[in-house]
Every structure is written in C-alpha cells, then in structure tokens.
Amino acid sequence: MKQKTALHDGFNAVMEHLENLKQCDYNKSRYVKAYEDISDYYELAHVVEYRADVNKDYRDNVNERYEMKLISKKKYNYFTRFSFMLDSFYAGKEFEHKYSRGLRFKVELDNYYQSQTDQFVAFLKDQMSQSTVTSYTSIARDFFAFLQESDIREIECINESDFIQFIKNEYVSRPGSMNNVCCVARKLAEYFTAQGHPVSLETVTFRAAPTRRVIYPALEKEELEVIIETPDRNTIMGKRDYAVLLLASFTGLRAIDIANLCFENYNPDQKTIYLAQHKTGTRIGLPIPDEVVEAIDDYIKHGRPKNDCPYIFLTTDRPYRKLCNISSVRNILLRQLKRSRLGYTPGAGRGFHIFRRTMGKWLLGASVNPEMISQILGQRDREVLKRYLPLTPDLMRNCALGFESAPLRSEVFR
C-alpha cells in the first residue's frame, strides 16, 4: 500500500480497533481502500494534516460520487464510516458502533429560517417524545422552505392563506401523512403565537379526512404458545429470544422499550419492571410472573455475554452491544414465526406490535377498567383504546342497538 502521512495515525488507530474486534481480513482490506481514497482527496486539496472541515467536504464528495453511481453502496458505506472514525479519533473520542450519516434535505434553508426551525424544535421538545419531534421537524422544514421559496422573509407576514397553500402542497408529497401535517401546522401556529405573532386559522380544521383503517389481528392463545415454544433454549440465542418473547407476551411492551431495558429497570425480587416508555415518556411499573423472571435470569446467567453493558439483552455476535431499538427485537419474532408452523407473510400484521394488540384484546375481554388498561399499556390518551375494540367481537355486539325502539311494520323493507 502506498504510504500516506496526513492521516496515518488515525488509520493505525482504526486498524488496531478492527484487530481488537477480530474483524476478518476482507473487512480490513475495505478500510485500507477507504484510507487510500480519503488520503488521495487530502492530497488533491493540498492539505497535509487532518482537518474536520476537509473531512466533511470529503463525505459530501463521496455522496456525490454515490449519487452519480461512480461508486457502489458498499464503498459508500466504508468510505463514510472511515471518515467518521477519523473524526472520533482526532477529537479524542471512542469509536462508535454506528455513525449517523445525517439528513440530506432537498432545500437548504437560509440562516433566518434555519434559526426559526431550530427554535421550533426547541419549542416542541418539552411537549412530546424525541421520535415525534424528529418526525415533525421534517414537516416543519418543508413549511419554512415553502415560506422561503414564496419570498416571505419575516414570520410577521405569515397568514392563514399561507398555511392552507402549504397543506395543499404537502398533500402531493405526503398524502398518507396529512394528520401529521395538520398537527405540525397547529403546533407552528402555537409557536408563532408564543413568539408574539398570533396567526388566525379559523377556516383550517387541522384534521385530515378519515381513512379506512386496516384492523390488524391479535394472537390467539394457541398461536402465542407456538411462538413462545419455538426458540431452542439450549442455545444462547434461544435463551435470549425466549426471554424477549415471553416478556412481550406478558407485558405488551413495545420493541424499543425491550431493547432499551436496563438492569436498573429490572427487579427480580419484586417481580417488577419499572421504566419510562420511549414513545410517551410515561413511567410505568409492570408486574411479571415467575416464568418471565426465570427466563430472564436464565439468559443473564447462562446466555448473556460477559459484558459491562447496562442493557439486559445483547447481540450474540461481537462486538457485544444492545439490540437495535426496533429492528433487532422485531426480527426475533419474525425468525420464530418463520421457524414455526404459523409462518410469516409480509403485510399480514404479525409484527412485534401484535403482542401489544393481544394484551389490549385480553384486557378488554376481561372487562378491565379502561383507566387500568391505559396504565398497563402506558397510554396517555384513553381514546387509543378504541383501536383494540374491533379485536373483541363480543364487546362490539354489545355496542350495537336493537330494533326494539324502532319496530318494523313488515318483515321486508320496501
């Protein structure tokens, strides 16, 4: 390999890190290629030593080459990851397992509207979860980009017609997300009012037309038993998967909350799990039966890798780390469905949320108080319980009115 000096210290640190992780020679060779590529870029830029701004420009260059199909997706991934690892090394930080490559937006905001976006995000943070803030930020950026392209230079000039036109424009690109668009419009109006510039929105309903909601299934008792008994508990992965599935079946916890479950959240002596739900921020304490405690303890003692990581459920491959927030936990269920006689069909509603629907169905079927169901599922709005009602046909029949109050004059309607 041609000797390069500008980034050689960082390259050596990356290779040592890969060696410690016991990476294969193929992976190492990919990082060597990445080192050669970024070194060539530095040489063309006439830069001798590492610089963060040059590194950022290099990643933009890699993005451009990838979009022009000059490099493969695999090279794009290795090149950008190596660049981020250099940033970590020269900043005196540890290498991260996964680097965010950042968001790329169709329209760049000028300083004024970027500042408005940042202030709006700060305005939202105390009102909702981070995942919702992230979703709303994308729509808010569209709104400020719309104002920018409309040559509206100050928020004092915004009126109701601007909101109406923005909502019409968003329908073209986000037809399935109009409720979110309307919610963001309402929050933007609140934000402008807090800034001292109230906007009158009397003719805007802020609620999209209802769509036909697909009713996804819950699990029957026999189906749940099949799923729970499928993992091979003689293996490390099987012990983990069994504990995860059993925990979900008795608590209805979301995949992200199981992935983020720490030892501090788990009290085996009291047979309880305490946590703040990721989606709502609601703090809940859930009792768990002996069999769930036994499954988790069996995994911790005989399956979990020896690691100081605070999270309970870890990957089975090196480097050992927490499960990805959603995908890894969801894949545990999908793997067992494919192995069982139940099978897996995409789009059939048998994702990890099926445990939550099953829990809601059972609680409603047992005539549990709606307030208690909301507490168990960690819901802030009791209205969300309506989505579980179609899963209980007997309760739906109780909602139907008879014809006693409107007697028929004949047996056939004319």
Structure report:
This protein is mainly alpha-helical and 414 residues long. The protein is built from 16 helices and 3 strands. A 3-stranded antiparallel β-sheet has the order 1-2-3, with no helix packed on it. Helix 10 (236-251) packs antiparallel against helix 12. 25% of the residues are buried.
Write the layout of secondary structure elements.
Blueprint: H1 8-20, H2 25-44, H3 52-67, H4 73-90, H5 111-125, H6 130-149, H7 160-173, H8 178-194, H9 221-229, H10 236-251, H11 255-259, E1 266-267, E2 272-276, E3 283-287, H12 290-302, H13 327-339, H14 354-365, H15 370-377, H16 393-399
Antiparallel strand pairs: 1-2, 2-3
Helix pairs in contact: 1-2, 1-4, 2-4, 3-4, 5-6, 6-7, 7-8, 9-10, 10-12, 10-14
Structure in a nutshell:
52% of the residues lie in helices and 3% in strands. By secondary structure, it is mostly helical. It folds into three domains: 8-90; 111-194; 221-396, Orthogonal Bundle (hpI Integrase, Chain A), CATH 1.10.443.
Order of helices and strands: HHHHHHHHHHHEEEHHHHH
CATH topology annotation of the largest domain: hpI Integrase, Chain A
The CATH class of the largest domain is identified as Mainly Alpha
* Strands in their spatial order, largest beta sheet: 1-2-3
List descriptors.
3 domains; single chain; 414 residues; 3 strands; mainly alpha
